[in-house]
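hey so i finally got around to running the thing on that chain from the lab meeting. sorry it took forever, my laptop kept dying and i had to restart like 3 times. anyway pasting the input first so we r on the same page abt which one it is
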Amino acid sequence: MTNIRSTLATVWRIAVPYFKSEDRRMGRILLASVLGIELAVVGLSVLFNRWNNVFYNALQERDYNVFAYQLGYFCVLAAIWIALKVYQLYLNQWLQIRWRRWMTERYLGDWLHDSNHYQMQLLGDAADNPDQRISEDTQLFVERTLVLGVGLLNAVVTLFSFVIILWGLSNEAPLHVFGRDIPIPGYLVWGALIYAAIGTTLTHWIGSPLAELNFRQQRFEADFRFNLVRARENSEQIALLRGESAERGKLSSRFGLVAENFMRIMTRTKKLTAFTASYSQASVVFPYILLAPAYFANKVQLGGLMQTASAFSSVQDSLSFFITAYRTLAEWQSVVARLDGFEAAIQTAGAQRANPGVSRTVAKAGDAIRLDGLKLTLPSGQPLMSADDFHINGKERTLIAGPSGSGKSTLFRAIAGIWPFGSGAIAIPADATIMMLPQRPYFPVGELHAAIVYPSEPEAFTAAQVAEVVREVGLPGLADRLAEHGHWNRTLSLGEQQRLGVARALLHAPQYLFLDEATASLDEPSEAALYRLLDQKLPDTTIVSIGHRSTLNAFHDRDAVLSRSGNGFTLHDKIRTAAAAES
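ok and heres what got predicted. didnt touch it at all, straight out
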């Protein structure tokens, strides 16, 4: 019961915000319509139950007039039932897509808000495969919630509607055993209740492991799909390394987990289906077994027998809702758990970002970027690098060097505000525009024009402006392909991607430009040409570079180095030698 209450509380927390959102009016109207139609369908079921009595009595008495009239009456009820079910399905699907769209936009906004997606990775990405949770789990949550919610409403209303009918029929057709009546008020109701209680208990005992198995199955499926995408995205490197056999082994191992867990689901589902199918078939004849003695003793007519059997079946189906929907409930519970974990991971990332160890302060406009008492650590708390009273002055060109793993890129992440682990303060001038160019730039799939000007909208720069900078960075062949769609991170060489990264910086002209080995894949003459271009086109931009080539010294007027100090590294200025300055 504790688990059920916890799950329902989670469902309420996930579901209710939509019905309080900006789309609440339409959502509430659609939900009320779906539920209202379901109530009308239950009302028709009551009319069908009464129709059973009159129709089968007419057959028993061979009354053709009543028989013909009841056939026409049935056609009217059936036409109304069909219309209601058609429009209920249509409105239900309409509600599903509106609800899912709102949830998707909400989760996308929360996940991508202020680098939450990156913080979640740094914290270990407890919510694995966020793409699946946003795309698949939201769809399953909305669909399963409506299916189960409407089904539960039907079960409850049907139960109360037919319990009254069945209680009255119990008095009209008393329990007849060994030639005499045994007066048990509402014995048919008690029979249905006991039958359903036994079935529910056994169903839960057999099927309870399915919730955890379904949770794991979704995770294994998403992991397998994610690794397939990784293999496709890195096909060139795999081919160059002749890594097909190794990759196939890893993918087969991933799929092995999928298949192994699915076999467990199959085994458990086989047991559950064997019981529920037996239960369902037995429920067909169970009311006749109870009523047969009274019928053959002429205590009840055929119509009464059929009406009672129908009412008993309705009550028993309502009480057995948990049994018939058990597999759906297990899948739904795993989906709820995944969405709950996803929301918790987003909240944890947001809390980490809201209370970072590294504080960001606002310096006066035009002032330098200041690092005061800065100590960066890994997420585990292990010291990485430190910098105290280090200034990055305006319009200055600074080159940062240091051994691999000393924290150079992490320093850039901290300045960008996406690395919260550590202590100290980073002061950024007010209204400063900062751009980071990593070693491997990101280009969204789509038009080349839009990929280059990202993250701005394509309309922010004309085709002529983009074509000009593309030519300037040494890619005249791409200047005429700006309207072409493509997967540019996959089709362009890393050197070409780095040139386009510089083109992006030329277009946006930030006040502070940080280049994290952003030209390392180019030959030295090409790299020098790009740095000269930056000097020419962005004379007022402060440039900070990470690089290892000595040729970069000529394009920077200040050297800084990260050197070993205790358990980490310390950033400090490096005094140039005469030979280095001359070079």
